[in-house]
Amino acid sequence: MFVASLTTSQTAIAKTSPNLVITSADVTNMRAAINVEGQFKTTFTANKAAIDQQMAEPITVPMPQDGGIAYQLTQDERYARYVRDMLLTYAELYPTLPLHPARKVGKQNPGKLFWQSLNEAVWLVYTSQAYDLILASLSSAEKNKIESGLFRPMVKFLSVDSPETFNKVHNHGTWTTAAVGMTGYVLAEPEWVEQALYGLDKSGKGGFLKQLDELFSPQGYYNEGPYYQRYALMPFVTFAKAIETNQPERKIFQYRNGIVLKAIDTTIQLSYNQLFFPINDAIKDKGIDTIELVNGVAIAYGLTGDKGLLDIAKQQKQILLTGDGLKVAQALDKKLAQPYDFKSVAFGDGNDGKQGALVIMRQNVAGEQAVLFKPAAQGLGHGHFDKLTWQFYDKGEEIVSDYGAARFLNVEAKYGGRYLPENKTWAKQTIAHNTVVVDQATHFNGDVEKGNANHPELIFFAKEQHVTISAAHIASVYDGVDLTRTIALVNLPSNSNSNSSSSSNLEQKQSFVIDVFQVTSAESHQYDLPVHYKGQLISTNFQLATQLTSLPVLGKENGYQHLWLKAQAQPDAGLSQITWLNENGRFYTHSAIMDGDSSVLFTQIGANDPLFNLRNENAFITRKSDAINHTFVSVLEPHGEYNPSKEFTVSAVSEVKKLSHQKINNIDVVELAVTSGQRYVLAFNAAKNFKGKQSNSFVFNGAKYRFNGRFKLFEINN
Amino acid sequence: MFVASLTTSQTAIAKTSPNLVITSADVTNMRAAINVEGQFKTTFTANKAAIDQQMAEPITVPMPQDGGIAYQLTQDERYARYVRDMLLTYAELYPTLPLHPARKVGKQNPGKLFWQSLNEAVWLVYTSQAYDLILASLSSAEKNKIESGLFRPMVKFLSVDSPETFNKVHNHGTWTTAAVGMTGYVLAEPEWVEQALYGLDKSGKGGFLKQLDELFSPQGYYNEGPYYQRYALMPFVTFAKAIETNQPERKIFQYRNGIVLKAIDTTIQLSYNQLFFPINDAIKDKGIDTIELVNGVAIAYGLTGDKGLLDIAKQQKQILLTGDGLKVAQALDKKLAQPYDFKSVAFGDGNDGKQGALVIMRQNVAGEQAVLFKPAAQGLGHGHFDKLTWQFYDKGEEIVSDYGAARFLNVEAKYGGRYLPENKTWAKQTIAHNTVVVDQATHFNGDVEKGNANHPELIFFAKEQHVTISAAHIASVYDGVDLTRTIALVNLPSNSNSNSSSSSNLEQKQSFVIDVFQVTSAESHQYDLPVHYKGQLISTNFQLATQLTSLPVLGKENGYQHLWLKAQAQPDAGLSQITWLNENGRFYTHSAIMDGDSSVLFTQIGANDPLFNLRNENAFITRKSDAINHTFVSVLEPHGEYNPSKEFTVSAVSEVKKLSHQKINNIDVVELAVTSGQRYVLAFNAAKNFKGKQSNSFVFNGAKYRFNGRFKLFEINN
């Protein structure tokens, strides 16, 4: 069947030019657009100025694609000649090249133009597009020389001469299949396209479609997390666009229920306030304005016309000079953007979507709360040992944070700009995250292979009007220790202070994140649960023993060697409260149930850091020693406002007055009482052997409660 | 003569109403404006909604002014009745009031409505305006009751019954004179106006004009610094506006060469990126959007029509519901704003402008460099012991910083929201600033009176195209030690990297701050010079001995007890370099001349801080021990860009290759060589006995140099 479809489509290949990402019809529209005021014209004018400048200089770093676009839009032959001359030079050069002298033997597959073949594939993805854009301007002799000297040998080098990379189901392989397939379209070599799609032997065991099958979950989540997801996205969307242009009958954007569009959308969903959630090895400054997503959003908008995507495009502040880019620019000029819909979702992990999940909970008001809960799989070598960790975001800022990667990208003085040694000794370690550490050891003992082989299980994810809740479980991170965590984002209409209404900026909602972390074992252990908080400590409702004149280090290994111990405390049994102030001007109080025996350690990152490689961030760690089973129960609550500019401070004190937790059979019952006298009971059933819409009932404080399904929030008016 | 002018103007008083800050003519324009789309209408609509809501509730916190404006604009009698009823209630109440029960005996002058009379004066400034706005709607009987029950006794209480406060030349006194004078205009009591202007005895020894004479320098600088300057501004501009409205013949805005407008403008000049320079006891979040300056800018724009003020008004994002506010709103709607001109200025301190100076140097490109250099007077009780300190700002951020005040304004949990104990033990101490500390003692031994009695001397301030430079001197902070500092902000066209032009965002200028701090004494001392830097340490060109597993405290008192010692070093003689990365994405390198004997201490604030009251900020301190004379010479250089979002890092390494300093007779010669091979020699003469356009010459490296005046920057092409 594949062969049949190939045959029918063969004649369609390369009839017109350009015809990869940009088509002749696009060009017609784009040429008109550069004469009309608007974002597209503005972008093009700036772009053209850059090319003109580049053309005036000797050819050093060839970026042929922009030249091709300038030729198509201005029809000025100078641009075509510039690209042509560049390609002719390469056509002379390429056949003479050995493997690159800077290649790393045995580590990466070497290229010829570049030290690794990955870079060569990337280069070809762009250069095949440039060639496509100037094709019409070339003589047969020129085409022949460029194709036989450059494109054909390069395709051969990347495909039949490098079968392992080509067939590899890995995002590096995607660049190679995209490069070969796109060049195949331009040179009218359907065989290359077929190999790109189905692997060298066209069996379907390798190739682009297999990559689409394996590298994303059914919802479009990429196993390594958002930072690498956006990186992986580029060749997928670019090649898919070229396939759609040349062979729409392949319906590539419908493949696997629209996996390419899902991957683009999921990348957006995995952001907060324009930045990607920084799980795993992530540079925290990376966000939705990344070029990979500029490309993805334009292509997705071109296909779907979804106005929510324009909201993202607007924030990207960057217009692509393509047909899709033109559609985006014109829609933005017409102010068609509508708010993008950020959702609460559990993204199933793994190619089957069943290897744990990455859970996002949101209160869908601009700039308001987001919870990230991570019962996700390890995510290969860039994954962190942070099973069941969480993060909290509010009013534009990180509140409970993840360190991300320890790296200063491209800063030579910081370990050559590579991942710092502290990425391994600190950032990947479990204590660097907001999850339980048993006996000061790291999950899976820091063994990546073991991590990849074992993933948490998502017990459930559910939501209703006021509550989004998820539970997950893992028993493989520590021998003989079972971890089950349930996190709920609760949003309630605020009852308190309804009479003092002077400041209209105040939130009308009251939010809580309820966290129940149950640890069970057959033996006695030490359990540490850190909260890495962002802000200035304001107060605690218990006495602190603060180190005044000398700071000791907390431990010797597994990340503990990087923590200064600033203060410790042993709160009385009952409600402990820790309040901090974030730079967003809001207060946050962490209220927890203490047993009188647990201690709280206040730490700062920075010990054993001879070259000041680490950021000096703060945490508090609740430590339960010599325990067999233990359940950490806490509530995080945003409140009030500190406004020194307008000179007012409101609600600097937590509303939480009481917190209790009971496990009644399989039902966890969390009771929360606030200052107004209002009481709430959140009941949930996180049992694994749970049946459908099961009915649950329990007796609490002498009253009988009943609910169907996994959970219910009861409001109790006294 | 004063009496004469009073007599002629007497008949003009209170003929029309309203006629204080808002006039009848204003009202006509404003009524028209609330029917036209624009910022004024938007503001009024929101404001009216708030009043309507307030009127629906029991009267608790009376804010009568807004009601008065709503009445004038809508002509809806309900608003006038609301204000009238409030005032009638007060008129019943006021005569029955004793001194306020919460007054603090012997500390502040008590009020009747409030615990201190200051608040009463503030209240009257606003309430007299509200009364003026509804006057036309009242019957004679109502007026009589309100005036005899409320305004007359309150004015008596604030003036003849409190002569000390009333006559005091202090910004608290300004509220009182403004309150009494403004009420005088509304009630047609010229005697009150006269007393407000010239003091109770009308001698001119007290009163508003004397306050204008004494509390500002001739350039409009207020002795306590920008944070308190903006606070002091309110009654000055409000009363001046009321005087101008009622008695334009007094030409109050021309008084003392336009001191009121100068004070408004200076308040703006004392900001960077919308925030006030945080010298002395300053809350760092306070900036140009403060209501005092919203008021000041509107009134100044109303008088001058200066379009640069609209630039500030735009950033204030707040429209005043007054005639001047309307002018601002309409001008903003018409997009008339032009860039406000931030200047390099030495603001002379003290009422004569000769008690030292606060020096601001800027490179006049939006968001670019500003240097604050502070050879200013102590600034009374809120002043810090920081003679000759400096700060540096670049690309929107603090780079070399000042701690400001240690205070969480109104946060009850933090010492009741008052100045924290650490304000005294840390924030005011010399080591908390970027200036020399001798023998670990604080300037003037921390004695405010001694500080107020001794101010530095500004030796010179000068500028030309590429250099702004200032020198200052003080010998009274430490017995027998003479401190002279010269700071220059140098901006040069960048010579380096002119061929690699790919990133168009890169700065085309190269900037340096050159700092020469000369300390002389007859005896041996320890000299510490801290640089409180903002950012992440990237690298040093010398070996660090970093504390890995235990952090010691640096000292026992004078602020040193709050510093953890994180690392120390003893750089070789020659050029030492310390590079950090600010969150604005730019690198900063501090290059200094080392003698092989000095050490560098890397510190973090936070020791002896049991309640986590301090921010954990970083510094490095260059320490020269057992020295009689010593000169600290350094260059601070912004460079490059760290852009992890777009994944590039450029120019992360300093361009400075050589730095030398010689004192040749009275001439300091600083030589700076950069990577490109370019060399610069900055020569300056900071002698006190300097004569006019004196000619200077010196021989350096065998060549003879000559310049006229205080300084010259020589460019040397090899």
Secondary structure elements and their pairing?
Two copies of one chain form a homodimer.
Chain A: H1 2-10, H2 24-33, H3 39-56, H4 64-74, H5 77-93, H6 117-134, H7 140-158, H8 163-167, H9 171-186, H10 190-198, H11 208-214, H12 226-246, H13 255-269, E1 271-272, E2 275-276, H14 291-304, H15 307-316, H16 323-333, E3 345-348, E4 357-362, E5 370-374, E6 389-394, E7 397-400, H17 421-427, E8 437-438, H18 448-453, E9 457-463, E10 467-478, E11 481-493, E12 509-521, E13 525-533, E14 536-540, E15 545-546, E16 550-552, E17 563-569, E18 574-581, E19 587-594, E20 599-605, E21 618-627, E22 630-639, E23 641-643, E24 648-650, E25 656-664, E26 667-674, E27 679-685, E28 695-700, E29 703-708, E30 711-716
Antiparallel strand pairs in A: 1-2, 3-4, 4-5, 5-6, 6-7, 8-13, 9-10, 10-11, 11-12, 12-22, 13-21, 14-18, 15-17, 17-20, 18-19, 19-22, 20-21, 23-24, 25-26, 26-27, 27-30, 28-29
Helix pairs in contact in A: 4-5, 4-6, 5-6, 5-7, 6-9, 9-10, 9-12, 12-13, 12-14, 13-14, 14-15, 14-16
Task: Note down, in words, how this protein is organized.
2 copies of one chain form a homodimer. The first copy, chain A, is an alpha+beta fold. Chain A is 31% helix and 27% strand. Chain A is built from 18 helices and 30 strands. In chain A, the strands form 7 sheets. In chain A, strands 9-10-11-12-22-19-18-14 form an 8-stranded antiparallel beta sheet, with no helix packed on it. A 6-stranded antiparallel beta sheet of chain A has the order 8-13-21-20-17-15, with no helix packed on it. In chain A, strand 25 (656-664) and strand 26 form a beta hairpin. In chain A, helix 4 runs antiparallel to helix 5, helix 12 (226-246) crosses helix 13 and helix 14 (291-304) crosses helix 16 (323-333). The longest helix of chain A has 21 residues, at 226-246. Mean pLDDT of chain A is 91; it is low at 1-14 and 496-507. Chains A and B meet through strand 14, strand 16 and strand 17 of A and strand 14, strand 16 and strand 17 of B.
